[in-house]
Specification:
Blueprint: H1 24-37, H2 41-86, H3 92-96, H4 99-111, E1 117-121, H5 126-136, E2 146-150, H6 153-162, E3 167-170, H7 185-203, E4 208-210, E5 215-217, E6 234-238, E7 251-258, H8 262-275, H9 282-292, E8 298-300, E9 306-307, E10 322-324, H10 334-340, H11 355-367, H12 379-395, H13 400-404, H14 412-415
Parallel strand pairs: 1-2, 1-4, 2-3, 6-8, 9-10
Antiparallel strand pairs: 4-7, 5-10, 6-7
Helix pairs in contact: 2-7, 7-8, 8-9
Amino acid sequence: MISTSSTVVQRRVPAMKRPDEKKQPLVNKISNKLNERKGPIFKRLLGPFLYRYLCYGTYIFWFITGILVLRKTKNATTAVVYVKHHGDSVSLESIENSPEFNDLIRLIDKEFDRPPAFLLLNQYALNMTFNFLCNTKIFPGVHERLIFVTLDSTARDVMAEYWPNIRQLYWPTPSLYKPFSFAEGPYQTIYLLRSNLAVSLLKRGKSFWMMQQDTFWRKNLFDMNLEDQYDFDALFDQIGHDDQSQRAEWVNGANFFVHANNYTLEFFEALSAKIAHWYTPDMGIMIHQCHTWGRPTCKYITHKVAHSWEWMYTEQRDPPHIMQLDCETDGGSKLQELAKFGFYFTKPNGRTCDLDAVRSAQLRMEQGKVEVGPTRQSWGRLQFRVYWWLVDYILSIPFFGPYLKPYLPMLGYVLMLTM
């Protein structure tokens, strides 16, 4: 039997190429070109070298900001805890129930025919206080209106020795014995004391001035008899360059007068309650209450009468009667900084008055020749100028800025990260 086999030969048919496969190399080239052009816009604009340093700068900025936020959080917590821990020593109850305060009320009733002006003092502010007293010594009747709340025995005794005719309320407060600076716990505590003292006076029906020693008097503020006006409940100094400034009608809080009535009593009771628990400037609270409460009626001393240190950085026209010079974050160096501007009015011993220096400072202000060159720019003042510039910019934003005006100052401590 013959068997046969057949071989089936299969011819390989080349696979048909898809129409787009012929174009694939060209597509790849285009894709590669596009990928080369991809990347952040700043990298394409600046180039890889500058872009790398931009990234490094951004990382460093946020790292430093994070450190400042942590530092600010620690400082805020420490300050609030300090006020809560030492608040009893400056409480309303401790003031009202003290024989010293009752003696003070009798003194005011007996010897004051005009509202008194209160200033607070510990031993570390003695040099600044002597500077202020030498400045105001040339104005008749000013010292007779002053009452110093002395917070330690050194301040009490030195004042009694050199200025025996100036009245005192001795209020020993161990929590305020040491030097302190801006936004610290003692800084808040002393303003809580001031607010509680205001409440105590208002409850007794006493109108009053509150003042600070870091103020230069070119003219006698008391000669204006501002306390005789009754179209306001409280009269505050203000910050900003002039009445058209974005920060006009923001309370400065250094020198102000208060009429005694139920509205101002409620105002300062609320102020005390907030300072005792919040990490916020007392002037920020006063600004908020003045702008959002119907009463009391807050009025503001015109910039031509009372100005802040910012006047020195204007064209120095229309010199004010008084100029508050608190633009330093370090209380220990404040007087040395003021001396750079020519506002130092004692002899080298720090106790004897130099009245010629007072008259010289008056003349420089009247002539608009207070020197504010870069060599006189302290770190504290530079920080404030930058922050005020930012605030002015924010407040100038349409709709958004005016809405924020009553609230932004309450965030002052928090937003000032470098302080």
